[in-house]
Design goal:
The protein is an alpha/beta fold. It has 3 domains: 119 residues, Response regulator (Rossmann fold), CATH 3.40.50; 132 residues, Response regulator (Rossmann fold); 152 residues, 2-Layer Sandwich (Alpha-Beta Plaits), CATH 3.30.70.270. It contains 16 helices and 15 strands. It has a 5-stranded parallel sheet, with helices on both faces. α14 packs antiparallel against α15. The chain is flat. It starts with a strand and ends in a 12-residue tail after the last strand. The C terminus is likely disordered.
Length: 419
C-alpha cells in the first residue's frame, strides 16, 4: 500500500481527490488542509509516493506548500485553480512532476493517473544509451524523478550487453550518433531479437533531420525526439509509449490468462515452451510439475461451485507467491502446471514449502484445509509434451497412492525429503 499526501484547503476538492486516488487498491491518502498540517505529516517519517499540493493555501499563499514537499524529496504534483504560464514554467523547472489546473473532472483523473504511473515506474527499467555523459546524466535525472529504475550505456554495443544482463528492461532511449554502434544500428539489432519485440524504443538526435526520424521509425523505433527537448514533452512521449505498450500487453493477457485464476492458460504454456526448447541452453534445465488440489470434487459437492472457484483462486495465488519467477498455468479443472528453469534443489525446496503451506492454510470463508498432490519431471527431454506426460503419470501415482505427496521419480518420495 502506497501513501499519497494531499494538501488542499477546499473540502470538496479534497474529497474528490481522495475518492479517485483510493479507488485504486494500491493507495491510501493522508489529507491536509493547510501548510501546518502538511509539515506535520512530512516530518512524521511517513514515506509518501507522491504529494498532490494546492499552490495557494491560507497559510501558504505563495506556493510555500510546494517548496515544502520538494524539500522532503517527495514527487510533487501541483493542483491549482489558477493557470499562469510563467508560474507553471517556474515550478516545472524547480522539479514538480506536473502543473494541473482544476478545470474539470478530467483534471482530477489526470492526477490519479499520474500517481498510478509513479507506482508502475517503481518496477519499470529504462536503459539510456548516450555517449555524452552530460546529456546522459540529464536524461537519467529526469527519469529518476519519475521513479524509473535507470540503467546506462555509452554506445550500442554496451546497450546490447545491458539488455542481455537485464532482460526485464522495458524501454530504451538512445541517441543517434554514438561510437562503435549508433542508435540506428541498435534499434535494428534489437528488433532482430524475438524476445525484445515488445521493447519500447525512443530515438534521440540533435540534427532535427526528418529523414532520420522516418529511418528510425521504419527500423522499429516507437518514437523519436529532437534535442534539445523540453522535459514536459519528454515525459509525455515516455508515458504515452509505455501506456500504449501496456494496453497491448493487456489485450495479449486476455488471450493468455485463465479468466478465473489469472494465471496463464494451456495455450500460452505451449507457446512459451516452444521458446524454452528452441534454446539449447535452457532445454536441459526445464523442470515440469503437475499440481492437483486433492478432493476438489468434494469441495464442490459440499460447499457449491462458487466456493470451489474461490478455492482455485486462492490456490493459484499461493502458487504465484511461491513460484514468482516460474511459469504457472491452469492446465485444466483443479490441475496446475509449473515450469521452471531454476536449479533443481532450489525449485524442489520451494515445492516442498508450498505443500506445507497448503496444508496449514484455511481456504475460503468456510476456513477448511486442503492438500495437494504433485508429479515432477526434472529429467531432460526433447519436448515439453514428453515432460508433461511423465509429470502427469507421476501425479496420477501420487493421487492413487495416498495423495498429499510429491512423486519425483518412478518411486514415491515424500515431501519431507526436502530434495
Amino acid at each position: 500500500m502506497y501513501k499519497v499526501l494531499v494538501v488542499e484547503d477546499s473540502v470538496t476538492v479534497r474529497k474528490i481527490v481522495n475518492k479517485l486516488i483510493e479507488e485504486n487498491p494500491h493507495f491510501t491518502c493522508d489529507l491536509c488542509e493547510d501548510l501546518a498540517e502538511a509539515k506535520g505529516a512530512l516530518e512524521s517519517g511517513t514515506e509518501y509516493l507522491a504529494a498532490i499540493v494546492d499552490l495557494n493555501l491560507p497559510d501558504a499563499p505563495r506556493g510555500e506548500s510546494v517548496e515544502l514537499a520538494l524539500s522532503h524529496n517527495v514527487p510533487t504534483i501541483v493542483l491549482t485553480g489558477n493557470f499562469d504560464e510563467f508560474t507553471r514554467s517556474q515550478l516545472l523547472d524547480q522539479g514538480v512532476l506536473d502543473y494541473i489546473t482544476k478545470e474539470s473532472r478530467y483534471s482530477y483523473l489526470q492526477v490519479s493517473k499520474l500517481v498510478d504511473r509513479l507506482r508502475k515506474n517503481l518496477n519499470t527499467k529504462v536503459l539510456v544509451v548516450e555517449d555524452s555523459m552530460t546529456s546522459r546524466n540529464h536524461i537519467c535525472s529526469l527519469l529518476r524523478k519519475f521513479k524509473f529504475q535507470v540503467h546506462e550505456a555509452s554506445d550500442g554495443l554496451e546497450a546490447l550487453d545491458e539488455l542481455d544482463n537485464h532482460r526485464d528492461i522495458k524501454m530504451v532511449i538512445a541517441d543517434h550518433r554514438m561510437p562503435n554502434m549508433d542508435g540506428y544500428e541498435l534499434v535494428k539489432a534489437i528488433r532482430h531479437e524475438k524476445r525484445m519485440q515488445d521493447l519500447v524504443f525512443i530515438g534521440l538526435s540533435a540534427t532535427g533531420d526528418s529523414v532520420l526520424t522516418s529511418k528510425f521509425i521504419k527500423s522499429g523505433a516507437n518514437d523519436f525526439l529532437s534535442k534539445p527537448f523540453y522535459h514536459e514533452e519528454f515525459y509525455c512521449r515516455i508515458m504515452q509509449n509505455l501506456e500504449s505498450q501496456e494496453m497491448i500487453q493487456t489485450i495479449r493477457d486476455s488471450a493468455n490468462l485463465d479468466p478465473l485464476t489469472k494465471v496463464y492458460n494451456r495455450r500460452f504454456l505451449y507457446e512459451k515452451a516452444e521458446e524454452l526448447f528452441e534454446n539449447k541452453g535452457t532445454r536441459t534445465n526445464v523442470i515440469v510439475s503437475m499440481i492437483d488440489a486433492d478432493n476438489f470434487k468434494g469441495v464442490n459437492d459440499t460447499y457449491g461451485h462458487k466456493t470451489g472457484d474461490v478455492l482455485l483462486q486462492e490456490f493459484a495465488a499461493l502458487l504465484k507467491d511461491y513460484f514468482p519467477d516460474d511459469l504457472i498455468v491452469r492446465y485444466g479443472g483443479e490441475e496446475f502446471t509449473v515450469v521452471s528453469v531454476r536449479p533443481p534443489k532450489v525449485y524442489l525446496s520451494a515445492l516442498a514449502t508450498f505443500m506445507d503451506t497448503v496444508r496449514t492454510t484455511k481456504f475460503t470463508h468456510h476456513k477448511f484445509n486442503v492438500t495437494c498432490s504433485i508429479g515432477v519431471c526434472a529429467e531432460a527431454h526433447d519436448s515439453l509434451e514428453s515432460q508433461l506426460e511423465v509429470a502427469d503419470a507421476r501425479l496420477y501415482e501420487a493421487k492413487h497412492s495416498g495423495k498429499d505427496q510429491i512423486i519425483l521419480r518412478d518411486r514415491k518420495q515424500k515431501v519431507s525429503l526436502q530434495a
